[in-house]
Design goal:
With 124 residues, the protein is α+β, with helices and mostly antiparallel strands. It has helices at 7-27, 30-33, 57-66, and strands at 37-47, 50-55, 73-82, 85-95, 98-109, 112-122.
């Protein structure tokens, strides 16, 4: 008999996924972020007046070009889980001088949590 994971176990698994994203920001390597995302994930947000949108590969490329952010300060400010879906809000300061608010939607896909979408706000 398989026991259903507790909410704490699900929360910890989701935080672990988000940590891949943060580690990739610190290293400046999109490849370190990649395990956090589903292969069909998308990204949306504005950089100034311009919409930054499309496949998540755009994030990996931007991160590679932007370089390491060893001083980034990131905090998960909310996690909401309902069975196989979740949302996470992440606040990040000093991502090479930028401040972001990220909203992630996650899906438990083949027993693993994966980010399906990232929507972000770049603070002025």
């Amino acid at each position: 008999m398989t026991e259903k994971p507790t909410d704490v176990q699900e929360y910890d698994a989701i935080v672990s996924v988000i940590q891949h994203y943060i580690n990739g920001a610190k290293s400046g390597k999109g490849a370190e972020m990649k395990p956090a995302f589903h292969e069909d994930a998308t990204i949306f947000g504005y950089v100034g007046p311009d919409l930054f949108a499309g496949p998540i590969q755009k994030l990996y490329e931007w991160n590679d070009q932007n370089g390491p952010a060893p001083d980034i300060q990131s905090r998960i400010t909310s996690v909401d889980v309902t069975e196989t879906i979740a949302t996470v809000r992440l606040e990040s300061d000093d991502w090479t001088g930028y401040r972001f608010t990220d909203m992630f939607t996650l899906l438990k896909f083949d027993g693993q949590w994966k980010i399906m979408n990232k929507v972000f706000h770049l603070h002025g």
